[in-house]
Write a structure and sequence with these properties.
Blueprint: E1 16-18, E2 38-43, H1 53-67, E3 75-78, H2 83-95, E4 98-104, H3 109-117, E5 121-125, H4 137-145, E6 150-151, H5 160-176, E7 183-187, H6 192-204, E8 209-215, E9 249-253, H7 255-269, H8 275-293, E10 300-305, H9 319-324
Parallel strand pairs: 2-10, 3-4, 3-6, 4-5, 7-8, 7-10, 8-9
Antiparallel strand pairs: 1-2
Helix pairs in contact: 1-2, 1-5, 5-6, 7-8
Bound molecules: 4'-deoxy-4'-aminopyridoxal-5'-phosphate.
Keywords: CBS domain, Lyase, Pyridoxal phosphate
Catalytic activity: L-homocysteine + L-serine = L,L-cystathionine + H2O
Cofactor: pyridoxal 5'-phosphate
Length: 341
């Protein structure tokens, strides 16, 4: 019989799939790209919690168990509502820890409900109070994290975040490409993925080019932290988990390009992925087009796609939402009502 003992054993070992039409390389219309580089997407939504963050959740929790920071019956407290929360909630549930997430009230009810569905508790804080107010997001999470038995993973400073990618994601990509990878493209939030994978790949072959993709406005591409809409990537500060020496190049991507390309991935590659995936894949397409012009048919580009598009159906995949922010909604599915058919 073939089975896993727990969903935790299903984390990692995600597949690579070749990108075709969306690269707009000569021949890509027919799906037969002659003379272009091979571009492979690492599909992280196939992790059991639905994102790349399952990897860091497991590694951070196991390290805290080993160091004694997290004791049996302990409580995990983290100010997050996104993919890291889901990963932590899933691992905590399997290992018997309590999980409390603190999030601002602007976080959607759907996102809070996902965490609750795994058995986690969600504390919602008002956005409209000053940071020094006792009910503020910062004060509530600090107060909860200082209770006896509580442990805060702190994904922005925890070295086990990049380490999980150094130990799993990087070696997987190296083995899956049989050491033939020439370029690695990846978005940056905490910077854990690019730092861990990039370091591992460069240790195997210093010629591997590591390319960050970054929303226009974020500090990684020289911005000042001005707002952008793509979620999970870009920062207005430099996290400890980001290794500033690892990226050879950072490609700045606009929200408009990120969202349009996210829609293309669903419509043309049947990859229903999130906005940071569209952003990273847009950067990979740019790299592939440059390589094609240089005649680098030997190049193997791997782009990491962190999560699924299911969490963005009311945003990126919703024409009204896109239009509200002034983004193009062209080339989309006909959305006809029954009377019009
Ligand atoms: N995309 C999404 C959707 C994410 O949630 C994150 C994590 N914040 C990233 C990309 C970036 O990954 P990392 O934190 O490892 O840089």
């Amino acid at each position: 019989m073939q089975y896993a003992n727990s969903v935790l054993d299903l984390i990692g070992n995600t597949p690579l799939v070749r990108l075709g039409r969306t690269l707009d390389l000569p021949g890509s219309d027919s799906g037969d790209i002659a003379g272009g580089p091979l571009v492979l997407a690492k599909v992280e939504y196939l992790n059991p919690g639905g994102s790349v963050k399952d990897r860091i959740a497991t590694r951070m929790i196991e390290a805290a168990e080993a160091s004694g920071e997290l004791q049996p019956g302990g409580t995990i407290v983290e100010p997050t509502s996104g993919n890291t929360g889901v990963g932590l909630a899933m691992v905590a549930q399997q290992k018997g820890y309590r999980c409390v997430f603190v999030c601002p009230d602007k976080v959607s009810v759907d996102k809070r409900n996902v965490l609750k569905a795994y058995g986690a508790e969600v504390v919602v804080c008002p956005t409209a109070v000053a940071p020094e107010h006792p009910d503020s997001y910062y004060n509530v999470s600090d107060r909860l994290a200082s209770q006896p038995g509580a442990w805060k993973p702190n994904q922005y400073a925890n070295p086990h975040n990049p380490r999980s990618h150094y130990e799993t994601t990087g070696p997987e990509i190296w083995a899956q490409t049989e050491g033939r990878i020439t370029h690695f493209v990846c978005g940056m939030g905490t910077g854990g993925t690019i730092s861990g994978v990039g370091r591992y790949l460069k240790e195997q072959n210093p010629d591997v080019q590591v390319i960050g993709a970054d929303p226009a406005g974020s500090v990684y591409s020289g911005g000042t932290g001005r707002p952008y809409l793509v979620e999970g990537v870009g920062e207005d500060f430099w996290p400890d988990t980001y290794d500033r020496t690892v990226a050879d190049r950072v490609i700045e991507v606009s929200d408009a390009d990120s969202f349009a390309f996210t829609r293309r991935l669903a419509r043309e590659e049947a990859l229903l992925v999130g906005g940071s995936c569209g952003m990273a894949a847009w950067a990979a397409r740019q790299v592939a087009q440059e390589l094609a012009e240089e005649g680098r048919t030997d190049a193997v580009v791997v782009v990491l796609l962190p999560d699924s598009g299911r969490g963005y159906l009311t945003k990126i995949f919703n024409d009204e939402w896109l239009a509200q922010y002034g983004f193009a909604t062209g080339a989309q599915a006909d959305h006809r009502t029954v009377g019009e058919v």
